[in-house]
Amino acid sequence: MNSILILALILFGLTSFYFGKSRIKKVTTNGAFEPKALPHFYGYYQALWCALPALVIISIWTVFEPLILKNVIENKIQIASLNELSKDELNLIYSQIVSFAQGNFSGQITKGIESGAITYKNLLSISQGAKIILFFCAIIAASLFAYNQINKNVHAREGVEKALTVILFLSSVAAILTTIGIIFSLLFETIQFFSKINPLDFFFGLGWSPQKAFISDPTSLTPQEAKDLKEAFGAVPLFAGTAFIAFIAMCVAVPIGLYSGIYLAEYATTKQRKWGKPIIEILAGVPTVVYGFFAALTVGPFFRVIGDSIGLEVSSESALAAGLVMGVMIIPFVSSLSDDVINAVPQSLREGSYAMGATKSETIKKVVFPAALPGIVGSILLAVSRAVGETMIVVMAAGLAANLTINPLEATTTITTQIVMILVGDQEFTSAKTQSAFALGLTLFVLTLILNFIALRIVKKYREKYD
Amino acid sequence: MSNKNKITAKQVSVFYGSKQALFDVDLNIAEKEVTALIGPSGCGKSTFIRCLNRMNDVIDICKVEGNIEIDGQDIYDNSVDVVQLREKVGMVFQKPNPFPKSIYENISYGPNIHGIAKDKTHMDEIVETSLKRAALWDEVKDRLDQPGTGLSGGQQQRLCIARAISINPEVILMDEPCSALDPIATAKIESLIDELKSLYTIAIVTHSMAQAARVSQHTGFFHLGKLIEFDSTEKIFKNPEDKMTQDYITGRFG
Fold it and tell me: What's CA B203's distance to the chain center, in Å?
């Protein structure tokens, strides 16, 4: 229904555009007055007036129609029913009525539901009818208003600019609100989790085994259950595993990325740079799941074979394999960002150094690199935050067991892996185990937020220095 | 009175890709004198001066033809080490370009990479002498550890001059050293150039004819990549041979 209306709206809008444009030409050709803007602004003016009010009406209906319908129907159910119904019961009956009305209800049909569905359908058709009438009224009224304004040679450009500002503003508000919504849902679940588990046990506990936290009756815990619960959610092994794998990844990515960045910025000819940079950036375009099975099926077993041949015990899922492949994935970030910051170092500094008789490598080591250092540090921090949040590779290659180890050949696990493990499959939504995923998610979010914040601050400060 | 020639350039042509920027320039620069190169923008004077320490090598598409000798040695000869050449021929740029390091490190940079200083005391001496010669010592002696980029424009340019003379070059090339400075800072640099000429051979590119007249002993006038006239500064400014030079100096074109 809405899609047809919006399609119609687009058509009306387009017509209005040409109508407005030709209208202003007609009004001003006789020389009675000068147009205040170029003709196409009048086109946009007419089109915006045609489309926006109608769009607002559709949006209002989409948001409020289900709410009002639900309210009315639930009231009727409440009146019809003999005994007091709880909110959950009302909800259930209402959703049964709606699915019956839409013809895909598979449960037992009662008289109540049937009559409810009829009422629902009636109300819905009234509402839809009202919507269509209002929709067309709005289009006609607003178009007439705009037409009238154009005849009076309105300031179309100002109106259009204002409307555009508002549209852009609303888009950014939507983006911000979504983010805030996500943060609050994380926060809300995390608070619930911390009402069951002491935050100290979570942040400083050394054992992670959420499957232990199975509680038969949440209202009365046996001492054994309480102890299990206390020991089930110690997230230190996950933090350590995350940091460890990120560290291995940075050991790979920083030297290779940095050196290739320096080569691209300082040594490569224009032609090499033109080809080299996109090729390195292709690495960034490889889906992480591809890296994941590369790590799990190729690199991991390869290390195990090597380890076997020299008498080392290497588990086929190891921190080393995951870290290594993750490092390869991050190379283009480091390389591309450091290439950019090195390029931003003014040529005059290089010339000053060459003029002192410094060689190219001396110039890079003593002038260019120190000047670019803050930017490079910033790019490395951005890469770290990417490594910490990376999921697919570690899920596939790092293992699931929460070992607190610094042996890179053993399996270890990360925050992201555990979130995946906890939320895959059927879950009871209010259990401590499920909610722990939100606590982990929030921790991860805060961690990467801090890293990004510091990194961007450093990069920005550095940019200001040379601009 | 003319000193012996430090630099002799014969038939120097420079190409940027297929575009020729300099045409057969013959020009001699006398020892321990200031030689000024003047001319309208894009006339090739900066291109010429950048040939003298092979700064044009940095630009891929730049090709230099002809013969440039310093003390009788062809500097474009294959046996010449660019590092040693630039140790001998220092350069000061149009825009002050101190390194983003401390004042001290800006000066010690050159002596460090050439291994000139014997020890810390010697380095301190070099830094002090260089800053004194650049007439900057009194202004910065109490804050040698502060960044060179924090100085004023004129001070930065004198810091760059101090940096250039820290490795005790024989020639200093100056590419419009005062174009980014105010008149007071310019006056300071000019009197500095005047003092430095007793120690170094100086070639200066300038847009200001008054400046050329004030500081130089010889002046060359470039136009469209050609050296139009080269003579003593007095002659160029009082009695130029060429009509074009005359017009430029009197401000009739430029």
Answer: 5
